């Protein structure tokens, strides 16, 4: 999974900015093509010298700059592309015309720009191009939604009245309502709701963790129509890693943060991992993972050979682990334990009799972890993040520590802030796990790309300093 849906998880502001960059680039290309075709044939399009000597050279840069300033200054940012796109034609043509007027006056004043009939043709040409851009942006957005790349799978919690209101009024296909919990559930209301909508309906006695995992939910919406049940609704889901938004039905006019321009919301428990910073993290992960896999491939192949010679197949070890939002994935490691039956949840300790001879060596230098770069390429893991634990351990420790599952508010990592702060290796007791959890939660609250790079550099020193098991 490429995790693009997480880039867009809180709002569509990043997508809107991205499409604006595409718009500026495309408008520049249109002016470039027009300036050459004005006096030359199509075969001269690659001749940049013709463009540089045309009357549109200075004009093109000034026009793009003014268009950019108009886009930023005249119109506030939007958090929803569909509502942003409603008045896109009117808004963009206003920006286009004002940008053209200011650009022509500016270039005419500083560069003796010659105003001719060709300017009319340029305006028509750019207008047609702008319509194509807007249509293309909409096609891209719908494609991403249809392919489930940026869909937001929603879990609704609220009263019969509030859930019915959301499901009937909100037709935006970006929000896919997977299931709901009725706080004031009774048989009659369930029958009414099921006759109107086609999603599973549960009560507050259900195992919420199983619902989140089964439906691959990305957000929880708590529908607040009064203060009476708010604390109960929050307590139902506060321990889980999925983002929690509180939609305010009581004061919809307070439209600061909004869903579809209608419902005000508060980001009660929202991950920091979204937007352009997350996209950069994903790109860095992919590039570095390919680099490290290529660099380490001789070491991996030699280790595989020694594993085979000592204990035969299988060469790799796979196990279910918990990922972002509690979704399970299979983690890959080089096998370091003997091919015998043993309790899977038992952590490897120093001097463990289950260890292969080669297993001691590859665990000492974390060579057994190298195949996890494949998990990073697949999108299940990141290079830096909280280490993923066995599913059984997550269930056990989540019953001990209320905030334990919040570690899953990001992609799990090969290394992490806990590992470079003395919490690498097995956790021998609950107190050690609690301390590791607190360090991981600090990372989630203070994450930045610079912190990730710092952790990667520290990891190299710790691998050779720390005696693994």
Which properties best describe this structure?
469 residues, alpha/beta, Rossmann fold, seven-stranded mixed beta sheet, two-stranded antiparallel ribbon, 17 helices, 11 strands, flat
Uncertain parts: none
The rough form would be described as flat
Q: Tally the helices.
A: 17
Give the helix/strand class: alpha/beta
The radius of gyration computed from the alpha-carbon positions, rounded to a whole number of angstroms, is: 28 Å
Q: How many structural domains can be distinguished in the coordinates?
A: 3
Series of H and E elements: HHHHHHHEHEHEHEHEEEHEEHHEHEHH
Order of strands, widest sheet:
3-2-1-4-5-7-6
Query: Largest beta sheet, briefly?
Result: 7 strands, mixed
Mean pLDDT metric = 84
Strand content: 5-15%
| Helix residue percentage | 40-55%
> Total strand count, please?
11
Q: What is the distance, rounded to the nearest whole angstrom, between the alpha carbons of the first and last residues?
A: 32 Å
């Amino acid at each position: 999974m490429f995790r693009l849906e997480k880039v867009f998880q809180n709002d569509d502001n990043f997508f809107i900015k991205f499409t604006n960059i595409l718009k500026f680039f495309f408008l520049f290309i249109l002016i470039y093509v027009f300036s050459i075709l004005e006096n030359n044939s199509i075969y001269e399009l690659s001749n940049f010298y013709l463009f540089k000597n045309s009357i549109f050279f200075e004009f093109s840069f000034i026009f793009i700059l003014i268009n950019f300033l108009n886009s930023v200054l005249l119109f506030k940012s939007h958090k929803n592309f569909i509502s942003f796109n409603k008045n896109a034609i009117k808004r963009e043509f206003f920006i286009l015309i004002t940008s053209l007027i200011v650009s022509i006056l500016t270039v005419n004043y500083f560069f003796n720009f010659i105003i001719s009939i060709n300017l009319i043709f340029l305006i028509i040409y750019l207008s047609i191009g702008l319509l194509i851009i807007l249509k293309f942006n909409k096609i891209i957005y719908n494609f991403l939604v249809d392919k489930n790349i940026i869909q937001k799978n929603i879990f609704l919690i609220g009263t019969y009245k509030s859930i019915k209101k959301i499901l009937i009024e909100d037709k935006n296909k970006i929000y896919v309502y997977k299931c709901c919990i009725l706080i004031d559930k009774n048989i009659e209301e369930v029958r009414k709701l099921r006759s109107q909508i086609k999603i599973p309906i549960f009560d507050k006695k259900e195992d919420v963790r199983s619902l989140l995992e089964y439906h691959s939910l990305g957000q929880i919406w708590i529908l607040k129509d009064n203060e009476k049940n708010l604390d109960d609704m929050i307590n139902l889901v506060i321990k889980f890693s999925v983002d929690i938004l509180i939609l305010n039905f009581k004061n919809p006019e307070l439209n600061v943060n909004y869903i579809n321009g209608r419902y005000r919301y508060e980001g009660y428990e929202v991950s920091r991992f979204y937007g352009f910073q997350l996209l950069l993290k994903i790109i860095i992960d992919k590039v570095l993972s390919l680099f490290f896999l290529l660099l380490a491939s001789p070491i991996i192949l030699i280790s595989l050979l020694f594993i085979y010679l000592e204990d035969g197949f299988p060469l790799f070890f796979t196990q279910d682990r918990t990922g972002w939002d509690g979704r399970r994935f299979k983690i890959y490691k080089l096998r370091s334990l003997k091919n015998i039956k043993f309790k899977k949840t038992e952590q490897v300790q120093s001097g463990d009799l289950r260890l292969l001879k080669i297993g001691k060596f590859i665990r000492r230098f974390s060579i057994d972890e190298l195949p996890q770069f494949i998990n990073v390429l697949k999108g299940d893991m990141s290079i830096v993040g909280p280490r993923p634990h066995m599913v059984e351990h997550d269930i056990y420790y989540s019953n001990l520590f209320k905030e334990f599952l919040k570690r899953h508010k990001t992609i799990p990592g090969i290394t992490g802030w806990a590992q470079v702060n003395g919490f690498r290796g097995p956790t021998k007791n609950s107190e050690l796990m609690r301390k590791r959890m607190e360090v991981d939660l600090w990372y989630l609250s203070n994450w930045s790309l610079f912190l990730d790079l710092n952790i990667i550099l520290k990891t190299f020193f710790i691998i050779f300093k720390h005696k693994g098991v």
